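Table 4 source record.
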Amino acid sequence: MLSPRRRLLLRNGQEQSLIPRYFDLLLFLIERRAEAVHRRDIFDRIWTDVIVSDSALSQAIRTIRRVLGDDSREPRFVRTVSRHGYRFVFADVVEEDDEAECQPTVSIPSVSATPPVSVYETYESLLQRVTRSTVNANEEEEQREAAELLHALGTAEALRRLGTRPRHPFARALLRDTRWDVAEAGAVPILGEPAPFATARELIRLRLRRAAALAAVRWASASLGGGLAGVVGGTGGALILMAAPGSAASLVVVPVLAMIGGACGALGGAGVGAGLSVAESIARSWRAMALVCGAAVGGGLAGSAAQWISRWSLAALVGVNLDVGGGIEGIAIGAAAGLGYTLATLHSQGGMAAPRGSSRLVTAVVTAAACGTAALGIALSGRPLVGGTIHLIAQASAGSQATLTPLGRFLGETDFGPLTAALVATGEGALFGFGLALGLTRRS
């Protein structure tokens, strides 16, 4: 029996536990049992706020089948429709009044019990499966199913029996990863257990391999978003500079500053986006800390690369040696982007956050505010961002049209002073954060 109102699933009179998304998936398939439901429709309905891989859906279906006592080779309940999706195929569904509510109670028949097997044999068989090496995707999915079954039997006992047998770090990492998808699973600690570093390494490798394609798409989208934001910022800044009283800038500065802004934004977006994507794909227990640290590391690497390229190019091409920043600024902006993104997507669990509509806009605004604040702090400390660096280069190059002194005079300063630098930097940071977040949360 399945009760939508009470969110209850009974089999043979015993309550069966499913995590909320899997319960919603089962209910969705039953509601649309007259048709084969496409994978795309399932993702749009069940994983509305996050992006997950096809393997996440396969795991959800496998868990539902296990709970129902179904067999994928001879399905009684959920059938796989090749190249399409899934269909709930049990014909004798009975809809009853669910305690005077509009939603039905769906009665699911009992499934005959399998012949009894000793507890020792069951544990040992499953432990052998989770510790063996796999050679293809099917074996990997079977291995994950074995880990789920171990959780159902008892997580603590499974870990005790696992001990330090060969490949135990991988098995422990697999149990840690699958515990999020089994409602009755217990804790799988890493620290204080055998081979904690090896287990952590296996867990990172396991999650990265399953989310590599998604992370790559997110990284590319973040880079594109940062680049477009840089183009907008560079173009807008050039137009404002041209309009400032006393400015000698001509129309030629527009494509130049747009190109510089786009390049810096794309590089920053690539670094911060990569850090966020990798962190989000591997972290579930410490998501906030992982996102902030990952974005900071990515931003620092991108900033250091930009710093090195700028200094080398200026010295080699025009003989100008300037103290161009990059690394520290990248860390600060990256950490701020990670913090803003984390705060805006706190409720996104089980995949990579992908809010829609107004929620996506809120995510972009919060990330923009965080990056703008960090950029303001950088400017107040006397360190330049893109606009400030362009001004320094223009000052060192005689006859340059890109000097930002007219902007300072327009704001009442004699030169490109602290107020102008703060406003320009804040705008740069906010635009970057906005474009980064929109690119990062783009649903393909």
